[in-house]
Every structure is written in structure tokens, then in C-alpha cells.
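Our working data are protein records whose layout never changes between entries. Getting from the letters to the C-alpha cells is the skill we practise here. To make this concrete, we reproduce a full record directly below:
***
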Amino acid sequence: MKIPFSILDLAPITQGSNASRALANSLDLAQHAERWGYSRYWLAEHHNMTGIASAATAVVIGHIAAGTSTIKVGAGGIMLPNHAPLIVAEQFGTLETLFPGRIELGLGRAPGTDQRTAHALRRDLASSAEHFPQDLEELQTYLSDQPGPIQAVPGTGTKVPIIILGSSLFSAQLAARKGLPYAFAAHFAPKMLQQALQLYRSNFLPSEVLSKPYAIVAANLYAADSDEEAELLFTSVQQLFVALRFGKPGPLAPPDPNLNQRINPLYLQAASEALRFSAVGGPERVKKQLESMVETTSADELILVSHIFDHQKRLRCYEIGSEISIRKSVAAE
């Protein structure tokens, strides 16, 4: 069986452009992804980030779902500590009511922003992350057939599929205990990938929604018609991560062929470590790299992330990805 490929989109705002263009590009990419056979299209919640247009994630999901017809659309993810579970249930219950069978809800426990902005989101920062398991149970109750005295309308009975997101062992344990799919953010935090996957699989308890573990691994994809072009495109995300790590995030920069001469090698090394779970190259090289990722992780699915400055080159990147077929037999069962 072929390993499914999906897309994680942060709706990047590029230098010299704006959020309106970023959201139009996201819809265009989603429509292409649907034709190319991608399994799902997720958007991520971030706040106070001038280079990301998907802060109002549920609204953008509605925009993407309305412009497509078959591809699953969801959050990768909603940062639950930022929200009351009832609000999330109402939002995603409404989306599921509008687009039945196509909406998914990936949940994370990080704020997806800095502390000052997290305070502006009006949640209790002292304990909200610690309450993630309880908030998850509350949210599941609202979406169930038996919500109790408080109902999410729409929401009750929609049973929107929930996926636990993470980059640490905590979320792996929670996903295993709840019998839910698990998505690991190896595209920016690969350090604990193997340990988290092993913990998830070895502790998994079957549930009403899932009989066996299902692991999604997020990976960066920078594919082009030549290795050299892909490596140049990759310099945009390298600049992005250097800026993020050193407190100066901004719009996505164009590729820089002189990046190694312009940026401190220690900064680039830190970015390279964060981005080491990346497939960068022409079609043949990228296929081998993706096969290696599947083989070493036994992933059930790859969800691919691509911060490419030029929209047409981003489309070409995902078109190349859609032409790659990796069979389940590649993975160690």
C-alpha cells in the first residue's frame, strides 16, 4: 500500500507581499493538492507572526474547504491552551456541519506564540498547558453524542476526528493512552522523533476511533527540477529559522545564494539541526530521502511542509512530491 502524503501549510507571507495574497496562494495550492492526490491539507495556528497568515485557523480552514471538494481539511494544529474547549467544539462542529466528512482537528499544547501574545489571548498561562489532557476530554465530550448539560451547537454528535500533535514525549503518551492518531513535528523539532514514536506505539490502547497506532510524521520538502535549484530554494527556510531562533521573525525572505557568507556559521548550524528532517533536491534525490524517512520511522503517513518564496516554485515542489510513490513495504512493520 502506498504511503499517503499530505500538506501542512502555514500560509507564508513573503517579503513585499501581504496576508491577502498568502491566503489566495494557500487556496490555489490546496486546489492543486486535491487534483494531485494529497490525502489532507492542514493549517497551523500561530500568533503575532508577521510571516504567517493562518492565525484565525478555523476561518482559514473554512476558506480552503469551500474552495475544494474532496480533500480533507484541518488544523495542524489548534493550540488548545489558547482556547476554551467549548469554543473549539463550536468552531469545528460548524465546519463539520458545513463540510461533512472532510474536517479534522489536530491539537497541540504549546501556545504557538510568545508569552506576551499568549497573555493577550486571555488564557490562564500558569496552568493551561498542564490542563491539556483535561481540556482534551472536555472537547471530546462536546463533540460526542452525549455532551452533558452544555452543548456545542453545532458540534454535538459531529465526532470531528482528533489527532494529537507533538514534538515531545508528553503528547506521545497522551495519544497512546487515548487511542488517537499521533503527528510528530519533525519538520522543526526532530530531536525526540524516534523515542516519541516508540513510546506511542508501545503504549497504544485501542479505542472506538482507532484499533492500532497511526503515526504521521511532518517533514520539510524542497523539491525542484534540479538539486541545485532545490538547495537554493531551501535557503529561504534557513533564513526563517535563523530569524525565529534569534527573536526576529518576519516575512519569508527570497532565496539567497550567498547565505553561507552572510550569516554566522553557528546560526546556520542551529538552523540546520532544527531542519535536518528535510528532503531537498531534484526528483530522484528527494524520492530517496523520503524513502529513508519512512524506512527509519515506519511512518504511516508523511505530512510535508514547504516554505518557498515563489508560489509557482512551491506548486512545482508539491507536484514533484505527488509523483513520488513509496510503498508500505519500505517501512519496517
Summary: The chain has twelve helices and nine strands. The chain has one domain: 5-223+278-330.
